[in-house]
Amino acid sequence: MKNIAFFGGGNISQAVIEGLLISGFKKNNIFYIERNPINQRKLKKLKINNLKKNNTKIDLFIIAVKPKDAIDTYYNILNEYEDPRIISFVAGIKSSKYKKINKEIEFLRAMPNTSSKFGYGVTGIFNSSFSKVNLKKIICLLNRLGVVIEFEKESEIDTFTGIVGSGPAYFYQILKSFEKKLLKLCNQDQKLVKNIMATLIKGIGSSIENGGDLDNLIKTVASKKGTTEAGLKSFKSNKFNNILEEGLNAAIKRSREISNEF
Ligand SMILES: NC(=O)c1ccc[n+]([C@@H]2O[C@H](COP(=O)([O-])OP(=O)(O)OC[C@H]3O[C@@H](n4cnc5c(N)ncnc54)[C@H](OP(=O)(O)O)[C@@H]3O)[C@@H](O)[C@H]2O)c1
């Protein structure tokens, strides 16, 4: 997979492109097609190539437009390029929709998240029709962005989307409460507060990597009648985990609904 073209160069494409670049993927081998001037400017800054029709052999197309634009984009690729291999990042739209239009081409769905930008992405994939050899190459490519999970059932991608695809936003939402308190504590020093939050999250990541079990990790922080225990008790009485789980369920439900809208 030497040359990759992103069809739609918004939030997720930019994150993935930056992740590929920091992993050592050559910028000369990354192309984009983008209509939005704001995103065009951002992509230019990354010094990757605007794909001019038919002048480059593209080994892999990535559809990264909103669901409403996905099928038109798919038709565009099929009409303009011979035997394209296609990955769709688009939430919701099932493989069968694309296959109905052309069942010959190699196609799979992938669901990355924006942490791919730093090599901390988690990407779920569902292979529809890639050959074993090419699937291996795709997994190798996506592994550059972080962790890859392959699903056997396509419906699992919807669950994954609600949990991990949207996941970073939930953590940002939780961190807003930390930020509010920390800004007050640190005389509104935003730089310091960002540094504290980033370090906190990195430390949590390392602890999980090294220690594993979440209940044990909680025990390492909370002591009897201490501050953490007081905080945890309040979370429990306010059903914090139920609220979080309801949020995850709402996202999973929406992800399934989108599947049925298109
Ligand atoms: N953002 C995430 O974290 C994330 C994670 C996983 C998957 N996804 C999926 O990835 C897809 C893209 O999400 P996003 O957040 O990156 O969206 P986005 O920021 O809106 O980017 C999509 C870009 O594609 C452009 N576009 C649409 N149709 C086009 C066409 N025919 N030719 C050229 N450019 C075209 C859009 O232009 P206009 O603005 O003019 O429409 C827009 O700039 C969605 O389907 C989403 O479900 C997103």
Task: Give a concise summary.
The chain is of the alpha/beta class and 262 residues long. The chain is 56% helix and 13% strand.
3D architecture notes:
With 262 residues, this protein is α/β, with parallel strands linked by helices. The protein has two domains: 4-159, 3-Layer(aba) Sandwich (Rossmann fold); 167-261, Orthogonal Bundle (ProC C-terminal domain-like fold), CATH 1.10.3730. The protein contains eleven helices and eight strands. Strands 3-2-1-4-5-6-7-8 form an eight-stranded mixed β-sheet, sandwiched between helices. Helix 6 packs across helix 11 (240-261) and helix 7 (167-185) packs across helix 8 (190-211). The longest helix is centred in the C-terminal third of the chain and has 22 residues, at 190-211. The two termini are 30 Å apart. The model has no long low-confidence stretch (mean pLDDT 94). The structure holds NADP nicotinamide-adenine-dinucleotide phosphate. NADP nicotinamide-adenine-dinucleotide phosphate is lined by residues 8, 10-13, 33-36, 39, 64-67, 69, 72-73, 89-91, 111-114, 165.
